[in-house]
Design goal:
The chain is an all-alpha fold. The protein has one domain. Helix content is 74%, strand content 0%. It is elongated and about 55 Å long.
Length: 134
């Protein structure tokens, strides 16, 4: 799972070419998948692509906290559940998987070294005591 980073990871590590390309590719693929398969709106697709993990967090906040404050007797809760599933939960789950997959494939295409981020670096204190140099 360490290889499947968000496009924001590549942005913050200085790999802007990978970040912008993966953002464009995942936006296009998510747009096609969510529009053709699920009939989602543009706003839910943007939420899924741009906010990645945060949209999953918003879905959990709705399910765990906000859902129980809506009155069930008036039928509001059932309507809110349908809206949350269609515009928040489904796009967030699909977008999360597509974003990570597209970012991985774009990074692999551009030759990003995945081993560099997982390599263990020696402890600086140990290096001073033993005289190790890199």
């Amino acid at each position: 799972m360490q290889r499947f980073k968000s496009h924001w990871f590549y942005w913050h590590t200085g790999q802007t070419r990978i970040a912008l390309t993966s953002l464009a590719v995942s936006g296009f693929v998510s747009g096609l998948v969510l529009t053709l398969a699920a009939g989602c709106s543009l706003w839910s697709i943007l939420l899924a692509v741009l906010f990645d993990s945060a949209s999953l967090f918003l879905a959990l906040v709705y399910l765990c906290a906000l859902r129980w404050s809506l009155p069930e007797a008036l039928g509001v809760q059932a309507h809110a559940d349908a809206l949350a599933i269609e515009f928040l939960i489904l796009p967030a789950m699909v977008g999360f998987l597509l974003n990570r997959g597209c970012a991985f494939l774009v990074a692999k295409t551009f030759g990003y070294s995945f081993e560099a981020q997982t390599a263990q670096r020696p402890d600086p204190a140990l290096r001073q005591r033993t005289g190790l140099t890199l």
